[in-house]
Amino acid sequence: MSITNDETMFAAQHALRTFEALEEDAHERVAKAIESARRDLDEAQRRLDRDEMPNTCGILQTRATEVEMAIGALAAIRDAARPFKALADAFAAVTSR
Question: Are 12 and 91 in contact (CB under 8 A)?
């Protein structure tokens, strides 16, 4: 391969690894947001069980927005990574011949 192709291949593989790391981080943010929502809902249920009033500060609105934003970020990262994955796969196919 020429130097330009090697540099392009390296750049595509590096971008793919970067997106994979970003995707992993985004996935963890989604999991944390869901877990936080579960904790708040569990606390609301415990208060109801004790015949107390749950927190009325928009638990569901706040947590739903956090979960939705985290999922949106994950989806955007996955979409952005697709062209780099295809390029890295193409380079791998060409160099394996």
Answer: yes
**Residue in 69, 74, 86 with CA at minimum distance from that of residue 22:** 74
Q: Cα 52 vs. chain centroid, distance in angstroms?
A: 36
3-class SS shares of the chain: helix, strand, coil, % to 5? 85, 0, 15
Work out the number of other CB atoms within 10 angstroms of the CB of residue 88.
19
The helix (run of H) or strand (run of E) holding residue 42 is helix 3-49
pTM (predicted TM-score) = 0.75
Largest CA distance in the chain: 73
Can you tell me the mean pLDDT for 73-93?
87
Q: Token pair for residue 53? A: 């009033």
